[in-house]
Write a structure and sequence with these properties.
With about 500 residues, the chain is α/β, with parallel strands linked by helices. It has 22 helices and nine strands.
């Protein structure tokens, strides 16, 4: 049986670790990068972003997705491509199996006669069998298909409420609009439709669930549907000749929440989606829609549907700034400590993780889970070095430009007429100390290296020396505009 753990090793030595065994997690990370490059960002985000490797055994790679619709689509359109790409990285891979996470559903294999996956034999099951505590987010099983006009919708996640949503500059407007829509009473609807769009892991689904919870508590009839759940229900209603009842029930609610609208496929389903949106809005019922892009960029949708979606309030949730990432990480760490009292992460490690992981909140969640796994599986404290190792793969693919500490040292030395060896030396004259501190500050701001690593690169200094330099330069920049301009110029020169 292979190793697919919470960490992904570097690409050194073709993905094999020091013991000579294959690190399939690293190989799978390369497979996803190749798929992203070959298929494009839009296709990858739509169909492969949520495809995960569960295990490899006997030449068979078991992959999982969160919904049956994604499973069916990948099996029908991309299974051979995934197999060939994986095989190019790991020759022993002969089959691909796709399953649905949290359902225990049977999986289909690209080659006939392949063994079926046993849901109780995955890596998490083995950890539980060994008595190891593992914190895993609850995954609700996908609802049964809609039958005879049934329209129960997708269950709301009890954890995703307004009270658990962390507010920052990037999402304040979206949060305010969501709360206003959820609390609206009386005739008509507000901001209809409310259209939220954002990249992966920035909180739009959290807000949709928050709207659903708050509106139901107010006594309103709410249905939350993912795009694939909408399509699955409509197609099944056609098969069972209950489409009319399905549409009537859908149009008889107070609030329709539809997530991931960019996944809606097929002319007939798109037409029915457009008719449903129009009927609800014309009847004064509230519609809330979320996507990964604004309505004007949903090229697969009919132009009239795009126009209707863009006719309400369109709000973008932008990238998380550092302050918001720190808040999200602090909230997640506090929640984990409630169930694991012995789990502790120092403020320095938390700050490093929040600065290093800039893409989205899901990566922050993943970082916390990895730190927890390290602490519970090894029984040792979480240090800066272990944090760097645990989240390395979450960081390295997101650096817009790889700026080396050596380049910073050379540029600063040249700018202040000293040598790089002077900066690395023990000399404490003012002519050397100032550029050394500026170089340390820039190394912290422009690279993802930790304070201990930066200290090692500056002549083996302690991390407290680096922290003192960073804080001193930050303070001086705020007080001295000339120094601030100098540091900004150095930043631009390094980033260009």
């Amino acid at each position: 049986m292979m190793r697919v753990d919470g960490t992904v090793a570097s690409d050194d030595e073709g993905g094999r670790n020091g013991g000579g065994t294959m690190d399939y997690g690293s190989a799978w990370a390369r497979v996803k990068r190749r798929l992203r490059a070959e298929l494009g960002e839009d296709v990858f985000a739509s169909w492969f972003a949520r495809l995960e490797l569960e295990a490899v055994a006997g030449g068979t790679a078991r992959l999982t997705v969160p919904t049956r619709f994604l499973k069916s689509w990948i099996e029908s359109h991309y299974l051979d491509r995934v197999l060939n790409t994986f095989k190019a990285e790991v020759e022993e891979i002969a089959r691909i199996e796709v399953g649905v996470r949290g359902t225990g559903a049977p999986v289909r294999t690209v080659a006939t006669g392949a063994p079926k996956a046993n849901p109780a034999s995955g890596p998490l099951a083995r950890l539980h069998a060994a008595g190891t505590p593992v914190s895993v987010p609850a995954i609700a099983p996908e609802p049964r298909p809609a039958e005879s006009g049934d329209l129960s919708g997708t269950p709301l996640d009890a954890r995703l409420t307004f009270s658990s949503f962390v507010i920052g500059r990037s999402n304040a407007l979206a949060h305010a609009a969501a709360e206003r829509v959820a609390a609206h009473q009386g005739e008509g609807a507000l901001y209809n439709p409310l259209y939220l769009h954002a990249g992966v892991g920035l909180g739009k689904t959290h807000l949709l669930h928050g709207i659903g919870h708050a509106a139901r508590e107010a006594g309103r009839r709410v249905i939350y549907l993912t795009a694939d759940r909408f399509m699955y229900g409509f197609v099944n209603a056609l098969k069972t000749q209950s489409a009319l009842a399905y549409k009537e029930r859908l149009r008889g609610i107070d609030l329709l929440i539809l997530d991931d609208v960019q996944f809606i496929q097929g002319k007939s389903i798109q037409a029915e989606f457009g008719h449903t949106i129009n009927a609800l809005i014309d009847a004064g019922r509230q519609v809330v829609v979320a996507s990964d892009r604004p309505p004007t960029e949903l090229e697969a949708l009919d132009e009239r549907v795009r126009s209707r979606l863009g006719g309400g309030l369109v709000v973008e949730i932008t990238a998380l700034d550092e302050a918001l990432r720190v808040s999200i990480l602090s909230a997640r760490l506090a929640a984990v400590r409630a169930s694991h009292p012995g789990f502790d992460v120092s403020p320095q490690v938390a700050t490093y993780v929040a600065r290093a992981i800039t893409a989205n909140g899901r990566d922050l969640e993943g970082a916390v889970n990895r730190l927890l796994a390290h602490a519970t599986l090894t029984g040792t404290a979480v240090t800066m070095e272990t944090a760097e190792s645990a989240i390395r793969d979450l960081v390295k693919n997101r650096e817009p430009k790889r700026i080396k500490i050596e380049d910073i040292q050379k540029l600063v030395a040249s700018r202040y007429n000293v040598s790089r060896s002077d900066i690395l030396s023990e000399r404490r004259t003012a002519a050397v100390v100032k550029p050394r501190q500026i170089a340390m500050y820039l190394s912290k701001v422009l690279t993802l290296r930790s304070l201990p690593e930066i200290g090692r690169r500056f002549g083996g200094r302690d991390h407290t020396t680096v922290l003192h330099a960073v804080r001193k330069i930050e303070k001086q920049i705020g007080e001295d505009s000339v120094l601030g301009d100098e540091v900004e110029l150095l930043k631009r020169m390094l980033q260009d």
